[in-house]
Amino acid sequence: MTTQIAQLVSLQELDQRLQRKEQQLEDLHQQIATIRSEKELRQREAEERQQRISELESQQRETDGQLKLEEEKIKEKRVRLNRVRNEREQLALQREIELMKEANGQIEESILSVMQQLEEEQQQLADIQTRLEELQAQLAEETAQTETQIATLEEETQADRRQREQLVADLDANLCARYERIFGNRGALAVVEVRDETCQGCYMRIPPHMCNQIQSSQMQGSREIFHCPHPYCGRIVYIQVEADGAADA
Q: At 193, which helix (H) or strand (E)?
């Protein structure tokens, strides 16, 4: 393998390692963001539940007050009924009292419904608060662990980037640009070996005469760069050559 190809292979290994670390960093940040997002969602939900509970409690107090007021009116009607001697007026009052009792029955049903809703909302709020506590503990634990991992990865990434700068500095600028373009367009695989006359990037056959050219060029230490001839590949290709000049089987 010529020095230039060896440098490209080393650069590719470094770039792939950097890419993996950057993905790990992104995943770690996303992991924290997901927990934090759920925590914020639960907090908003808890606030909405608390607001709903406050509204129901207010509704219950208002309905209780209305029921007490109506019950006082019924008491007044009954006192009046006991004083009335006119049969016709008595019947009218009795009918009025019955209608008021029916209305109060509906108010009582409304109160029971509100109480049931309150109980359900309070239970859901308790569940949310329990989940919030779990999320808070999980967030604290994972944040501590993740921050350590992130710090380590960022330190390693900076070292890799410094090493990359040194490698790139020794490469021809046009060749480096070509490599980076292929690396970005071909799934982080720009430089591949040819084995058994087959490109290890696209797994298509390389013409024998081209394989001979690649091998001969590398054995002579030429700086010529070859690309896979298949249009949808075009990766930089090389053949691993042993010290004695024989191609690998």
A: strand 191-195
Of 148, 144, 245, 239, nearest to 197 by C-alpha is: 239
120: amino acid identity, one letter: E
What the block records as the tokens of 48 is 């909405």
Contact 164, 149 (CB under 8 A): no
The 10s digit of each residue's pLDDT in 114-133 is: 888 888 888 888 888 888 88
Write down the pTM of the prediction.
Answer: 0.62
Do 128 and 49 form a contact (C-beta atoms < 8 A)?
A: yes
Helices (H), the chain: 3-83, 87-169, 173-185, 208-219
Rounded to an integer, what distance in angstroms lies between the CA atom of residue 17 and that of residue 164?
11
Question: Which segment, 4-13, 20-29, 195-204, is predicted with the most confidence on average?
Answer: 195-204
